[in-house]
Amino acid sequence: MLSVINSGAMLLLRRCRGLTLLSTRRLPVAPAVASCAVRLRSSSAEDQGSYQRAHRPGWRHAVAGLLAGTGAVLAYGLHQHKAEQEAAYPIFSQEEVTSHRSLQDGVWVTYKGGVYDITEFVAMHPGGDKILLAAGGALEPFWALYAVHNQEHVLEMLSEYKVGELNAEDLKKQKTMQTLDPYSSDPERHPVLRINNLKPFNAEPPPEILSDSFITPSAFFFKRNHLPVPQVDPATYLLQVEGLPGGLLTLSLEELKTRFPKHTVTATLQCAGNRRSEMNAVKQVKGLNWGIAAISNATWSGARLRDVLLAAGYGPDVARRAGHVQFEGLDKDVTGTTYGASIPLNKAVSEEGDVLLAYEMNGADLPADHGYPVRVVVPGVVGARNVKWLGKIIVSADESSSHWQQNDYKGFSPGTDWDTVNFKSAPAIQELPVQSAITAPADGAVVDRSSEELTVKGYAWSGGGREVVRVDVSLDGGKTWQVAQIRSSEKGQAPEGTPPTGRAWAWKLWEITAPLPPGAKELKIVCKAVDNSYNMQPDTVAPIWNLRGVLSNAWHRVNVKIREDEREE
Amino acid sequence: MLSVINSGAMLLLRRCRGLTLLSTRRLPVAPAVASCAVRLRSSSAEDQGSYQRAHRPGWRHAVAGLLAGTGAVLAYGLHQHKAEQEAAYPIFSQEEVTSHRSLQDGVWVTYKGGVYDITEFVAMHPGGDKILLAAGGALEPFWALYAVHNQEHVLEMLSEYKVGELNAEDLKKQKTMQTLDPYSSDPERHPVLRINNLKPFNAEPPPEILSDSFITPSAFFFKRNHLPVPQVDPATYLLQVEGLPGGLLTLSLEELKTRFPKHTVTATLQCAGNRRSEMNAVKQVKGLNWGIAAISNATWSGARLRDVLLAAGYGPDVARRAGHVQFEGLDKDVTGTTYGASIPLNKAVSEEGDVLLAYEMNGADLPADHGYPVRVVVPGVVGARNVKWLGKIIVSADESSSHWQQNDYKGFSPGTDWDTVNFKSAPAIQELPVQSAITAPADGAVVDRSSEELTVKGYAWSGGGREVVRVDVSLDGGKTWQVAQIRSSEKGQAPEGTPPTGRAWAWKLWEITAPLPPGAKELKIVCKAVDNSYNMQPDTVAPIWNLRGVLSNAWHRVNVKIREDEREE
Questions:
Q1: Which of A199, A359, A419, B27 is the most exposed place for a label (fewest CB within 10 A)?
Q2: Where is the Cytochrome b5 heme-binding domain (chains A, B) (predicted)?
């Protein structure tokens, strides 16, 4: 029978430990299959895109194939279960629900007056153990935070675990207690942004906007939030600095601005997941489906982290015992866990590292989405370490223990899957590799033959302050190459000059105008950049594919059709 | 008629300005064609491999094709010229020869008693204008230095320009005057080395030796000399340091060893041309035909350059006016030009740059081939900047003006050729990109099916102190990948531990043992490394091909045949 299962479904089956149990209690086979499939795409509550993608045709086909393939056994299970579901449910008090808060006692939750025993589901939850935080209580505040749950098929999955109903009095209490949508105070955003996820807000500008401006206007700068935007009162804001011989240093916003010289750096930030959609096209990965615009360039002003650490007592003795500077954001989830990350100490204290505690972006106060009132800007380093709404700095022997430092934002071999991955085996992403992409024309665009030539535009950048020194462009899929014109300033303005070695923090915009090749019906446009360590982009996506879909920096490819003139048709 | 010329010959014709003259004097068409073809492969007197390669079948075919293609006109020219050559030659005095020392007066040289008017050849000389240094005198001392000339076809080319003979008395004087072979005092070398060029000496160890030892024994360490090995007396050796507020600092070897702390660094050096042979396989490049072993790893001890610069008065004010530290070797050519290079000032003075003025290699005095008594070791930076037989250090606003810094060791687009190249447009190579190669098995090896498994071994390294964090190995040409075991120490010894961020100067050796895939008749083994900036190696050679054949770091590929057991045959 198994031979009729398609290979995708085989993969799902093989990887889902839950299925091997074939539960004898309530046979929740359908949700187990569904959640296993989801789990392949997501294993983190912070990853808001994973449930969403489950709605796509690809996902539906996979599950359909799986169900079709497993055949009669599953069909029987589903039938039997349906029959059970129609029975009347017992009534429970909140107290009874709350007594089920562990795998031993069972894990019960409530949702809109229903009581659910989700004990069996815990191991299969895409967000991992975090589900236990909801044990004994209402799901609503969690689902408000992790908005990915607000989808029909998640409700369907939940319904399979229903064991009773909450009594009317306790339900009324719950309703008045339930918190508001934690995202309700998120700021307004510009409608031009392409939204990858609404809660938390993740969005990128249209690519053609990117290459029109060396400095990305703040409203168009890509947004990558992991949690709700916190409301921070600048008058009472306090930044804490820990782990240095001077003891705890606490700085108000005013002190940060007045006690330390204001330093300005033009730096490009890039999300580790930029261009993830190209990895998804090879094989589904876990994460938001970013296009090519999860990268932007801004001018940042603030105190240098180095200066603040020196004020807090940093000295060579510290370097001998500590290796990392941890940052904690003021953005937090329902459990109070804040966003966190760390960077190597030598980057933080280097005179040439240019790490800022920034309070201005493009000459104005930081916008709420970009970390108001204070964020870290770590030039040359992946966006995820540029912690926004900065609350605390800790100098430590250890990296940040946060989920995002330890079990996310790391690169793996294309042969590593969610069953074999060992997050300890890979370093946390810091400096990013060389990158470039074509912002115009768009893939699938049509060019008239009468226009005779074509202008191709894009961006290029490399991590670690390595300057992009050349961008090669091909119109024939990589057989022949031309060198693009590069600029490192706003159009019409004089270039900023060559940055000091190792401090090229800003991207380059490039363009090339080439005649349309006679006879060609299609152009396969490719770009690749070279940085001043002469690192090149890999040719293709599949050999750098990784389960988290990060570090997607293969040659960028755009296909364009040439339309012959009407008179020639 | 031109339509019968093959495309290679077309290229040669189009690029050779000399041919467009179709000289009316002595119709030296054959040598013009020949030298143009050579010029395509070489444009530098320092490049000793170029004339040698002219002997290969590929070259002979190109010229044969060219001559066949140009047909009757050339055939007539050759015939006429041959007739002229058989006439008796006039006798000249050395004084008459010496009066021809410019393009205006004609450029005459002598060789073994013959007098040659090479005026027309000057523009076509693969080594450029340097040929004018020989004007009016004997070729022998130059050809002793640039041993690439000692080949039959070079003599054939010269013979076409013969205009007379030197009188007997002057010939006798010349013979007694002529210098000895400048390479006669080069040291003995280990016979295991694979010699790419004898004078100057360039050789690499067999690959399988490389991966047997984390520290490469000095005798096996690849040798890359640009000029004869100078004889330096350690008792009178003086190192000069210029360009700092303290004025000229002069240090004896003893002072270098005693005035500054001894610092030890394990660092891998790699020639910019390592793996050039793979680029040659795509399309001929200019340069020595290195295999995969122009890379080695040693322990170096010496004074830190930073400490010496501080002693010579380096301070923050210097950083504002200077940007480079230039090095001059004591090795020089017949014109007195020394080898030279420079590195960025911030690398030189950084506490974390670890740049050494090394006087020990692997615990002993530097060997003659590696720069005795003092060389620069610039960890993470291309071999060419690690100047040997160090004579002078100059802190300057400018890069070294040497040929090797300005017009060599730079990377270009695959579309750039010797007619379009602008050396000013590319930065001098400093940090090298991520690299790896398979040292065993060798390409073309045969494995017995009965051995059941195969061990693949190799090295991996990245420039700029970026640590290699993973090596992926494929046995099926890159379709599927496994992660290799990495070690960072001598086999059997404890690893040295994780180097500080940005200071991973030593390579990693790696290996993987995998079962022979059932049914496979051949394995297409591929390796690719990832450094901690997550830079990857490009997939293929052609898109990174460049006219100088440097920076060859595409995936390394080795094909192995599986021999079935006798009983199965």
A1: A419
A2: 89-167
